[in-house]
């Protein structure tokens, strides 16, 4: 089993988020490459480039977008909106523009949040050629009716979609998929928190002896998962379980969104770990909107992939605004998310199915020294009850997780009981 030790992990993850925060990311471009380069300082991520125009199912890999600068200058030549101060100021994928125009001409290209007047919104225009600026509503209301110089120094041309992949080979070719999107600019919870969690889970696993193989994907949202699935359609049958990680650093209760299958092993594992944790949490059913789980769970694949987050997208006012900053995500919540996900992976690693070697009545445990030497010890009593549950339900049809759920006992105790029984020749693992 994976050792569940977390020391100062949340602070390290938060420092990594701070390193990533200034980068202007989108679904393609140099910001993605720079992000993957920083991830590569922690894990040996392999970078893949898919040419623009590549057909991926019903989609086409888009042109590559890069931006150098953008601003709006007033009649005195002052930058009243400045990309250099916040990369949220420009609508992602804005086509290049350099012109002088009246405020009336400019206004349709300005986006703000009247109900959150101090925050800059995040907007995109990926698949429709357009351009625009985002600014706080307070800022917008302060602009005068005069002529403005408008400049977006960007390029939109044939290039590549870039994504990162890190594969850890285990004893089995069956693999656990862990996916996070890397296409948002300076937004910490969505999804620098998911990137950090994926990276630090990969670091934790890379030095372990593992039963399963692990594949970590760092991809642009939607088009990235569609592209990866299109290019690897023949190997997805090896995916035993998976999780999409997003929005894992805010103070809200943990939320797990089930896979489309609804009762896959990954769904059972999260349910068990969250229930055993004693922390506030919510488990919701699958629905075909959200993050990349909807691509992995599309009917042609129907992979056992759920989504792990804290407050769901759109349910906190900071979502897709400048309020999603370095103070919005906190180390203690990052650490709690890390502990939960590592607990789930630990469970998956240890979840096996056994066959009792004494199916006709329970074996005599006393003569094997498996009863408590001293009566009344609560831990000893729990261990004995766990052994009885494991022996009784190990008929080749119940996994250890299913035994833990049915017995209402922690998986760790059930696993330890099974290990003892195997050591004494009373159980035999069933290998598929």
Description of the molecule:
By secondary structure, this protein is an alpha/beta fold. The chain has helices spanning 9-20, 30-39, 103-106, 137-141, 188-206, 223-231, 265-277, 293-296, 331-350, 378-393, 400-407, 411-423, and strands at residues 46-51, 55-56, 59-60, 64-73, 79-82, 97-102, 110-111, 133-134, 147-157, 160-168, 175-181, 213-219, 239-245, 254-257, 281-284, 305-309, 353-356, 395-399, 427-429. The strands form 5 sheets. Strands 1-10-12-11-13-16-14-15 form an 8-stranded mixed beta sheet, with helices on both faces. It has a 4-stranded antiparallel beta sheet with strand order 5-4-9-6. A hairpin with a 2-residue loop joins strand 2 and strand 3 (59-60). Helix 10 crosses helix 12. The two termini are 19 Å apart. The model has no long low-confidence stretch (mean pLDDT 95).
């Amino acid at each position: 089993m994976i050792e569940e030790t977390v020391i100062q992990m949340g602070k390290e993850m938060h420092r990594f988020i701070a390193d990533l925060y200034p980068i202007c990311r989108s679904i393609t471009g140099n910001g993605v490459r720079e992000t993957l380069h920083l991830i590569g300082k922690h894990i040996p991520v392999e970078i893949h480039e898919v040419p623009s125009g590549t057909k991926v199912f019903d989609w086409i890999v888009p042109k590559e977008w890069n931006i150098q600068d953008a601003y709006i200058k007033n009649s005195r030549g002052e930058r009243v909106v400045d990309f250099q101060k916040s990369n949220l100021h420009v609508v992602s994928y804005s086509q290049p523009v350099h012109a002088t125009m009246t405020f009336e001409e400019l206004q349709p290209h300005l986006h703000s949040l009247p109900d959150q007047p101090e925050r800059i919104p995040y907007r995109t225009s990926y698949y429709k050629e357009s351009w625009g600026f985002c600014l706080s509503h307070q800022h917008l209301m302060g602009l005068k009716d005069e002529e403005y110089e408008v400049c977006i120094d960007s390029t939109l041309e044939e290039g590549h979609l870039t994504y990162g992949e890190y594969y850890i080979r285990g004893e089995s070719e069956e693999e656990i998929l862990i996916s996070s999107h890397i296409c948002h600019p300076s937004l910490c919870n969505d999804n620098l928190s998911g990137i950090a969690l994926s990276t630090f889970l990969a670091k934790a696993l890379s030095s372990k002896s593992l039963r399963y193989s692990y594949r970590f994907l760092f991809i642009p949202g939607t088009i990235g998962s569609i592209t990866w699935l299109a290019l690897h359609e023949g190997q997805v049958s090896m995916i035993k379980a998976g999780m999409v990680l997003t929005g894992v650093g805010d103070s809200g209760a943990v939320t797990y969104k089930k896979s489309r299958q609804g009762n896959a092993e990954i769904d059972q594992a999260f349910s068990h770990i969250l229930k055993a944790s004693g922390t506030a949490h919510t488990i919701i059913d699958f629905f075909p909107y959200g993050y990349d789980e909807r691509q992995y769970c599309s009917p042609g694949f129907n992979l056992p992939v759920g989504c792990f987050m804290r407050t769901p997208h759109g349910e906190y006012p900071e979502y897709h605004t400048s309020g999603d900053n370095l103070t919005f995500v906190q180390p203690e919540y990052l650490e709690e998310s890390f502990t939960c996900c590592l607990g789930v992976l630990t469970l998956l690693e240890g979840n096996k199915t056994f066959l009792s070697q004494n199916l006709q009545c329970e074996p005599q445990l006393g003569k094997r020294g498996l009863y408590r030497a001293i009566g009344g010890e609560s831990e000893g009593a729990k261990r004995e009850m766990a052994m009885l549950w494991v022996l009784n339900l190990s008929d080749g049809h119940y996994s250890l997780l299913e035994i833990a759920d049915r017995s209402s006992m922690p998986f760790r105790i059930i696993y330890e009981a099974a290990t003892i029984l195997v050591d004494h020749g009373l159980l035999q693992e069933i290998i598929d």
